[in-house]
Amino acid sequence: MKKIPFIKMDGLGNDFFIIEPANCGIKLSAKDIQRLGDRKTGVGFDQLFVLKPSKKADIKMVIYNSDGSEAGACGNGARCVADWVFKNRGVKECTIEAPGEKILKAYKGKMVTVNMGPAKTNWDEIPLSRKVDTLRLPQILPAFDAPCAVSMGNPHCVFFVKDIKKINLAQNGPEVEWHPLFPQRTNVEFAQIITPSRIRMRVWERGAGITSACGSGACAVLVSAVRRGLTKNKAEIIADGGTLVIEINKAGDVLMSGPVHTAFTGAAYL
User: Is the backbone peptide bond immediately before 118 cis, with ω within 30 degrees of 0?
Assistant: First the structure.
């Protein structure tokens, strides 16, 4: 039987199983991660993080979705990892090596802020399966206006709607996630503009399903809203689990700020 020490953390209910560097040598298969991620027979989480030493940053994070697939980015998870660094090393700033050798900068203030870097909007960077206008994709869901596509290190498809309460996320989410336009599948966000500085969002995460929040998704929503001229460069993004503050700075980097929470520590067995 394999013993796996872990920390359970979340950002706005977007929850994570975190393996510290001291235990990063533990080998987990996709089936192992699926078993750990089961909310009835395992621990349950949206993503699993393995923290490792890094030669390029203060810490390295490897991310897996609850279905066992690898993830390219996770904003709320990055904020939790940053909080772990702040508490364990007594610092207020740190760098995180994310998938794709991307270096994220994080800061501790009233909330935990992570600089997610610039968004990517070219069709081949997201990636899409063919060259199209990423500001207005071909119609994917017949009942909805054309969505936007953007990458925050992982692909996102953003729909702007008039009434988010009418969205059937369990049905529409997987329809978009597995659409052939997205060769690596995609995260899916439905967003309602409340005011130019407040946006309501619901999210279906690639490899995880419905989640209460999504940091990279909140970033993708603001980037898409700014590209369409719907908001300014800073807004509150209100997810099911709470609110994130997203800002695009003068350099074009996307900053994400919000609370984090440590729920418990423990050990799981496989």
Answer: no
pLDDT digits (tens, 9 = 90+) for 83-127: 999 999 999 999 999 999 999 999 999 999 999 999 999 999 999
Residues with Cβ < 8 Å from 12, sequence gap 6 or more? Answer: 76, 212, 213, 239, 241, 242, 243, 244, 258, 259
Known catalytic residues are: 74, 214
Give which of 47, 36, 34 is closest to 2, Cα–Cα.
36
Task: Please report, for residues 137, 155, 244, the alpha-carbon distance to residue 177 in angstroms, rounded to integers and kept in the order given.
Answer: 14, 10, 23
Please tell me the distance from the alpha carbon of residue 38 to that of residue 48, in angstroms, as a whole number: 12
Q: Quick check: helix, strand or coil at residue 192? A: strand
Q: What is the pTM of this model?
A: 0.95
Positions in the chain whose pLDDT score sits under 50: none
pLDDT of residue 1: 86
**Which residues share a beta bridge with 234?**
247
What pLDDT, on the 0 to 100 scale, is given for residue 134? 98
Q: Could you give the residue ranges of the DSSP H alpha helices within 116-238?
A: 169-177, 215-227
Q: What is the pLDDT of residues 235-269, one digit of tens each?
A: 999 999 999 999 999 999 999 999 999 999 999 99
Q: In whole angstroms, what is the distance from residue 112 CA to residue 258 CA?
A: 6
CB 251 within 8 A of CB 115: no
**Please, what's the b/e burial string for 93-107 (b: 16 or more CB within 10 A of its CB; e: otherwise)?**
ebbbbbbeeeebbbb
Is beta strand 198-205 parallel, antiparallel or unpaired with respect to 234-239? parallel
> To 10 degrees, what angle do helices 75-89 and 215-227 make?
130
Task: State the pLDDT at residue 202.
Answer: 98
**Would the CA dihedral through 207, 210, 212, 215 be positive or negative?**
positive
